[in-house]
């Protein structure tokens, strides 16, 4: 049995995790090579004291398509590590029956020795909803129902569930989760203070991505979450917030910045293709998303760097960026970093992770 990594209140202490989001065309790097590099970097992250490894769920494009099942990839990560936490960032309940999803995640909790954190997301790509035959208008209800069904299956026996989209039972899920009453639950939120507040009220943890929102809006989201958590009477200091960035670090700051501009541009190109359907899609469940393409087309790397939406430069420059986002958003964060963006060479990713661990992380470990 592997030893689970700690789940600790973060308080005045910033933690760091490792995030994988495969954004590349198959001709640039094979899936086999990508998975091999993911496992190698995950082992290195554990050796260097990172808190978690996480990955996404996407389908059918260069925008995350190498990770159609986070549970499969994270099971492989769990098999080659001992302590680091294993995190879905996130699974999409709308695309999987809750009995199957809860069962797969319970297996992963057991295989990892109780190291699983479960992040749930709504999904936002019209093509993916079309491919699964799921109306986007149902995404919020399916999201809420899926989380509730999984939570009950993990924590109760003889579950009888009667929802709008699935009904089953009585059933007692096997295997039972190692973590009781269930693994920590995270909710991924893109732009909504209301969804952040709902997560805080429910006692769920939070995953956010600064690249898709403004500093002011993200501050509002986090404030709503923290206030709702406290108002609901949950344990002080118990809320866990994961905030996600890509990170490029090199002794030669110019080299790091060149990599950053190249692979952030690649990200935008792949994302533009994945969201193309928003040009003709309208959904009351996703207000404002019809303007998503225009917003992405206005991307400016230098502006993104100035706004600290991407970390890039020497270790000292990146440490200053991390300190700044701590001042903006709080030091009770776990900063989840992608060191292997796009089809970047493994050597550059390995060096960035190592330099960050050796020369940036110690500054924030009190």
From TrEMBL:
Pfam families: Bac_luciferase
TM regions (residue ranges): none
GO MF assignments: monooxygenase activity; oxidoreductase activity, acting on paired donors, with incorporation or reduction of molecular oxygen
Organism domain of life: Bacteria
UniProtKB keywords: Monooxygenase, Oxidoreductase
Domain annotation Luciferase-like: ranges: 14-328
InterPro entries assigned to the protein according to its UniProt record, in alphabetical order: Bact_Lucif_Oxidored, Luciferase-like_dom, Luciferase-like_sf
Annotated GO CC locations: cytosol
Matching PANTHER family: BLR5498 PROTEIN (PTHR30137:SF8), LUCIFERASE-LIKE MONOOXYGENASE (PTHR30137)
Identification of the protein by name: Luciferase
